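Second opinion, please. Pick holes in both lines of this record:
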Amino acid sequence: MFKGFAEDWVETPGARIFVRHGGDGFPIVLLHGHPRTSATWHRVAPTLMDAGFTVICPDLPGYGRSVIAHPASDHSSSSKRAMARSIRSAVETLGHTRFYLVGHDRGSYVALRLALDSPAAVARLALADCVPISEHLARADAAFATARWHWFFYAQPDKPERAIAADPLAWYGFDADTMGAENFAEVAEAVRRPEVIAGMLADYRAGLAIDRQHDEADRDRGKKLTMPVLALWSIRDDLEKLYGDPLAIWRAWADQVQGARIDSGHHMAEEAPTQLTGELERFFG
């Protein structure tokens, strides 16, 4: 995986970030989702690098090989604001103060928060398989609770740690053939580590509390994304089933938003890398 990429750990005030990076051009930062690592981009990142971009793929704080410096009992150290600060700090340490930003799944919430808090740093923003956390929770009917039950289970104390740790590979049901052997091996190793399980669950626990509060505060103030935004969603996942056209939600959050449907299940970077990369190349130019 990632031929031609360097691997580094970058110290930031909030976390020690593991990052893959390569290329020579305007930077694109790719943020993965749950329960993946930066390896999920192994079929996308090299193509973007070949297209002339510098491509930066961090492990989110608490995921993979990125370690949160001082985990907080109230999960504030795993808030999307804290994660976004660590990611931005790591990218700046690599020499980039302005960049394109892509987030998928949980990584999209980090990307959204980074773009809202630091709009001067984000030239363009692509968000995949998401709407803001507060918008999900405002629509949390029976259909949402059935589809996203794990959001609420992961917020419980102790039980999710024990359930996942009993057999992480069975819990997540990874498909090694779809993921690719090296990606599968990396993620399988990560989710066997108790500190990674704890970090991923802290992400969800923050989501239902402090992250929702941050979203709602921005919405109440009328704060919006000022950079061009691309919303992507997997047509064989549940976003359209839950909400219809996701752009109807994103138009309340972004001045300039366009969308595209990806013919895949949820993990689009692994299942539909050619289509996803094509949409990103068109958007980022």
In short: The chain is about 45% helix and 20% strand. The radius of gyration is 17 Å. The chain has one domain: 6-284. The chain has a mean pLDDT of 97.
